[in-house]
Amino acid sequence: MQKNTVGKSITGLRESLHLNREQFAEKVGCSTSHIINIEKGRAPTSERFILTLIKKLSLPENYFAETVQPTIVPDKMDIQIGINIRKLRLKWDMTQGELAEKVGFSSASAVSAVETAKRPISKTKMVEFAKFFQVDFTELLRTSSHKPRRTEANDKLIKNFSTLVHAKKKAAVYDLIIRLLSEAMGDIEKSKEGRCL
Length: 197
Description:
By secondary structure, the chain is mainly α. 61% of the residues lie in helices and 2% in strands. It has two domains: 5-73, 434 Repressor (Amino-terminal Domain) (Orthogonal Bundle), CATH 1.10.260.40; 76-193, 434 Repressor (Amino-terminal Domain) (Orthogonal Bundle), CATH 1.10.260.40. The protein is globular and about 50 Å long.
């Protein structure tokens, strides 16, 4: 098995576009050192980074399908969402197959892939999971030690979210979800930084 297949694929892609590392990093929105580390196999490649490359470079979705997957690590948010979905599924005493059927996945293995963060969850599916489990979608992001701040601004955002969902304004719902997710992840990171080890 070849080592650093993802890094080699990214190097080949960059060279085929006739871009140096600095130009490539600027085009995809990351640092030059990050590109160097990925190409040389010194840094793992996240699923989110691969999806960003595909989107920003207008690549076919299966462009990296031939690369060796063990070098791709799941995103922290995908891991937390998977853990919380599994907890809710067990709380509801359901199998992965039963849950797959309820949220429109083709099989139990699709739910397993989400729970183990081997498959990133789309915004639409995240909302479907939250609706099925009758929880606010932020419950899917919550770490066991994280208690979100209850503020007037947050209450207003949640009310806006409900209004948009009922009005079926998908683009606005997705934008609001991303905003709330970003704020939630920022709060989690800030709370971790403030702890003494």
